[in-house]
Recover the amino acids of this structure.
């Protein structure tokens, strides 16, 4: 009896496996990629002196997200911002971006997530909540305005600060880019494929 059941199972298993393979949906490996670098300015409140320390800075950010052909793209981001004479902020953020932003054209993105502040002894806050609103333009240019608030852990002071950054996203400039700029610098095979939505020429 046991051998008969084993024989039936041995015959059914390949049939079920073949059916699953034949009916499986094709996998999509298309992702949106970001890699930006630039510089700007920041001001952070020192809780001990009750004053804002101001400094120029430089930044880079990188991340990956959902397919760039969608109207809204979700991504995970890592950002490092170094403020001269102060130190470095590191952030992990979730990004919500428009499709136009992801495809290297006009659009906006919002980054929100926890950060770690390397400088000071807690008077600037150590674990802030960081947010940045980024306006994207063609050719990978983007302007970000952000803030750091609250404290997500520890006994340090709450973080209070503001940052403004002008960056170029090298992937929005190259492999992700499509749309109106193709007239000046063709990109025949953008990552994720060509956007063919309704009124595509107006929705970049």
């Amino acid at each position: 009896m046991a051998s008969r059941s084993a024989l039936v199972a041995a015959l059914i298993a390949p049939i079920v496996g073949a059916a699953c393979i034949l009916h499986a949906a094709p996998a999509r490996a298309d992702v949106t990629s970001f890699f930006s670098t630039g510089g700007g300015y920041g001001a952070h409140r020192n809780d001990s002196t009750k004053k804002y320390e101001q400094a120029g800075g430089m930044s880079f950010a990188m991340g990956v997200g959902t397919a760039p052909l969608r109207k809204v793209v979700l991504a995970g981001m890592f950002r490092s911002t170094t403020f001269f004479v102060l130190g470095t902020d590191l952030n992990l953020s979730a990004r919500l971006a428009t499709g136009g932003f992801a495809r290297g054209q006009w659009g906006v993105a919002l980054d929100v997530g926890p950060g770690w502040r390397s400088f000071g002894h807690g008077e600037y806050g150590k674990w802030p909540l960081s947010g940045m609103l980024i306006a994207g333009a063609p050719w990978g240019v983007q302007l970000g305005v952000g803030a750091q608030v609250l404290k997500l852990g520890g006994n340090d002071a709450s973080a209070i600060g503001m940052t403004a950054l002008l960056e170029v996203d090298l992937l929005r400039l190259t492999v992700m880019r499509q749309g109106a700029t193709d007239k000046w610098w063709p990109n025949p095979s953008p990552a994720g494929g060509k956007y063919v939505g309704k009124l595509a020429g107006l929705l970049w």
Q: What stands out?
A: The longest strand covers residues 32-46. The two ends are 66 Å apart (CA to CA). Residues 1-28, 199-204 have pLDDT under 50 and may be disordered. The helical segments are 2-23, 99-102, 170-173.
